[in-house]
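Hi everyone, sorry if this is the wrong subforum. Our group has a chain we'd like a structural model of before ordering constructs, and none of us has done structure prediction before. Sequence below.
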Amino acid sequence: MVYFPILLFCTACLFLALLQDRWRLPATVGIMGGAYIIAVIAASVLKGKFEGPNASVQGPAIAGTLVLLAASVFVHSNNILQKLFTALLSLANLSFILLFTPLLLGVMPFGVAGAPGGVISVLAMILFYLLTGLCLYRPMQRFAQRGPSVFLFGMTALCLVLYLLCMGKLDMPLGVESPSGRLFFAALMYCALIFCFRSVYQAGRWQYQAAKQENREYMAKKAYSGCLDMLWAVRQVRSAHKNGEYALDTVSQLIREERTGEVPRYIASYKHSALENPMLGRYHDNPCLSAVIASKAAFAAQHKVDFRCNLSALDAPMMTGELCILADELLTRAVTDASQWEGDRRVRFTAIPGEDLIRLEAVYTGELPKKEKFSPKGKSFRQLLDWLIDDPDPQENELRGLDGAAEIVLDASGSLTVSEAEDGVIIRASMRF
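Answer:
Right subforum, don't worry. Here is the predicted structure as tokens:
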């Protein structure tokens, strides 16, 4: 016995799980919930209109599935072939359950007449729909934005063949003589269906990871090239500084021969002020990383931000380009936000080592933007409808400006967090090695 409310509920859940929402989840669930109620009513009305054991079940089930398919056209952004595949998969699942359940009940060591048989049938249906949904969830989500393809045409045709096989329409071509043989072939087809989807998904995932790694190396090289430019600028400043020192020393010597005491004091004052130039500081043994920090320290000095850096403990097995990207994005965010703070401005950049772990922290004076909660008070119906259906407007989140750092930290099995503290904001990047 088939309970159509449960069957169509499983079908609606399969649509929601495998297909991608066009609007926000509340709107999608609301529309599909309404379609589910209409589908149940349609199935109940048509339940006695078909003759025969198979037709009395398949007819109402097809009608209810068509209602859910029609609703899916409006609420899901997948192409029509993916939606049709999901509908055929649901019908194939039903025909498989109708074939499998009698065989399952026949091997039970206890009586299955009445309620026990109904409970087992319902559980078998729910678990089988859940199994197919879990097996196909990742592949369908991965290729949700793609158009119709030869592969999907083939999988849709395989679903149709599977449906006809479980219905007993292909017994003669396949030489099947018993329900158990039909079940065996159907199980093989399900395995082939899932194997094909998972194989294509894994191949696409591998290609994506390869492209991601290539892009990461390209960005690291690009960042490294930019760091070399910074290093060249720092060296030019140092070279000019040394030339100035030499010239001043020469003038000092000449003047010293004339026994003038004012000029040496001026030269000493000049040297002392030059040592306070942030561009001349040595922040790390890695010259490129030191150059990146020096440029941020100069920006901080220009905006009257008290900048302190302690990276003496930073010894991470990472490419120079990745280190420079981390330092650049963390310090750019910290120094920029601190420069807009009213009051004392400061930035502290520190490396904290641990066992198989390195943590970079940028602590600065500032505060995170407050998120405004949506309130229906004073809103028009159109505004409420837009809030329900449309995606929310992009807002500045905690990780703004830290995209490259987030990707590097994720690849190192770490975490990147931005949180408020008593004296400001802390950006913390933790990486494991």
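For your construct planning: The chain has two domains: 4-212, 282-432. Residues 282-432 form a domain with the Heat Shock Protein 90 fold (CATH 3.30.565.10).
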